[in-house]
Structure formats: structure tokens, C-alpha cells
Amino acid sequence: xxxxxxxxxxxLVACGPEEPKEYTGxxxxxxxxxxxxRFAPLVRLAKNESLMPMDATRFIERxxxxxxxxxxxxxxxxxxxxxxxxxxxLGTTEPYRHQxxxxxxxxxxxxxxxxxxxxxxxTTETAAGFYLDPPKAVRNGEGTGAPxxxxxxxxxxxxxxxxxxxxxxxxxxxxxPGNRHEGDWExxxxxxxxxxxxxxxxxxxxxxxxxxxxxxxxxxGGHPTVYSARGSHGSYATDGYHRVGATxxxxxxxxxxxxxxxNVRPVDGEPWWGYAGWWGAxxxxxxxxxxxxxxxKRQLPGVFTDERCGGxxxxxxxxxxxxxxxxxxxxxxxxxxxxxxxxxxxxxxTVCEVAGPAAKKAQDEGFGPCTTTYTVVFQMVSPAQxxxxxxxxxxPRRVIVQTPEKIEMPVEAVRSSATFSESDLGSYTLxxxxxxxxxxx
Length: 441
Description:
alpha+beta, single chain
């Protein structure tokens, strides 16, 4: 079990926090709408991209506003359906309000929910519990006429350095495996020195931001080209494959052009400016939760980073597909074998992707994040066991199918050249969540 592994981590080492990153927030003063349009990027969408950009205001107008009680329960009725963008932001005198639950005081509807009591919360409070719930019909977005939203940042210590951050909005993110959610905010930043562009910052999926020198991007007409990965819309300086955890983003040169300078807007002028909730349902599984977007006082990491981006990665031998994993016993076995092989290779990205839900439970119980705890787990597995895990298989006769969406993998089912027990590997539970199999216990 994953909890067993992270318990061992705590016994061996203190899983400390990562080093702090430099954060900056939006500074409206000294911003120039003309400059924001002049430096706005040309976004090259991927070939065959079906999930297009969208106006965030229209996304709201077609969505219900709901309230999530930290996974305890969800209200049957929405707070508003459809939501009014003007009541989400700072400019309203009639904000949407909702109360948190009072644990231990059951209400009549639904029966499993505690009652509502206590202080009211509004949509301008960060992660208070509000989220937008769009219909599936909006997932394809609108097209390259959609707006781009910008905000202005200043360097904390060097007054000569400023930046324009450009926010791109899509109604749906579709990256297989392990990353599918409603609402998709992406961003890049143009770094300026004394008003002249010197670099572009890319907020990479799953990694720290990095930058590319302005001259290296060969900007056309003052507009740098940004490549948008198919389905996930991750932004890159080059086309090709780019590793994201256990899978790859794919950007290409021959997709549609999004000339963002034709419809560029200051984000603080939007009717919903101030909304600090989530743009999509909360599944409470990493990679499947609707994200937060731009909001007042949001601090962004690495806008002025000098860390340089690398180029494209070597194409995978078996490119990731866009189809859901089969809801079958064999597919669950293949997924578990993927986890075992990654454990043997010390491939922490794949391990934490497959075991994400179980690792999140362990972290909520007070253990460290997955990437920290599994670094220690790797040290606990002997070299002979690691070698055996790289080619381990699973005996389907020993696998226990509890339901079509929940399957037990006993340690006795693992076939390899080394012997494993409950104390050094453990038994696992896989469940079918959002189009794929994941370890949940």
C-alpha cells in the first residue's frame, strides 16, 4: 500500500519543503495597452486541435456555479444556473454567497451532507469552495477570434525590468494519461528591460517556469511564436514532443494561427475580474480538478526567471493516444505493471502519476508530497528487487475483481525474479477514475 511506503519515508527522513520561488503580482500602474498588443504572441495551435480558445465570459454565461465542501459532499442545487459574470467579481454589490458546512449536523438533503452553518463566503475569496460547472457542449471552444487577457508585472528589485503576462483560456484540457479537466488557463510572459523585450517566460506543465531569449525566437513583426500543445495547450518555444510527467505534450508547426494581438484585453477590465474560485469541477484527483485563473493579488512564480528552456524531447517509441483506457481487468493489470516497472527504474514521474490518488490521501494524513516520499521509497528497494521490478508481470488468476471499476492486486500476483512480501511491496487497489486506472490504496 502507498501509505505503508510513505510511513517508511517518515521513519527514515524528514521530508522538508522545497526551496521558495520568487513570486510577483500584477501591477496595473505604468502598464500600456499599446505595448501589450505590440508584444502579444502568435500562438500556433497544434495540428488537428479540436479544443479551441474561448472567451472566458461566455464560458461563465454557459456554466452553473456550484459549491464544493472539501470533498465532504456536494450540494444538489447550484448556487446559480447559469452564472452571471458580473456577480462573480469585485464590481458587484450583489455577490454570490454560500455557507460552509457544519460537521456533525446532518441536513435533510442530501442525507449524507452535514448542515450549512456559519460565516458566508463569496466568490472573491480564494478557493472558498465555488467552482464553475460547464456543459460538455462548450468543450470545443470558439476559435482563434477568442480574446487574450494580459496583466503587467514589475520586478521586485530591478525597476528596469517589467513583464506582460498573457493568459489564454480554453474550455477543456485533454492530456492522456492523467490530466483531463474542465477549464484550462495557460500563460506566457514577455520580459522587458527599459521597455524593450529581452525574453519570453513559459509556465511549463509540471515544471518550474523557464525562459527563452527574445532574439532566439525570431519574432515576426514584434510578435514571438508560441506553440500550443494538442489537447493540453501547454505553451512551448518549439514544436515537437515535450515531456510532462509520465506522458508527452505534442506541439506542431502546421496548425491554425491565433493572432492574439487582434483581441487583447486587460484582465482587470473583465466583468468577472475578482473571481477567485475554480474554473471547472473538483474531482479531488490530481490532474482532474478545474484550475484557478487570474485574480487580484495572485502571485505568479518565475515570471522573471533566467532559467533557460531546453528544446524538444526525443519522440516516444509509443506516442500517447487520446482514447480512454479500457475499463477491463487486463487494462488494470497493464497499468499496474507500468507502475511496477517505473518503481524499478526509479521513474518518479510515472510512479506519482499512477499512484496519484493514493499518494494524495497519504499527504492529507500528514505525510510529504509524492515526489519526496517516493525518493526515499526508492532507497528502500534493493538493487536486485529494482532489477526484478523492471520486467515484473502480474498473474491474472490472482487478481481480485471487486467491481468493474475496482480491482485488487495482491502482492502474491506479482511474478518476478525476486520475492516480495506485504512488508516491502504490499498489495494495491486500482480504481477506474476519469478514463483511466489509478492506484487509490
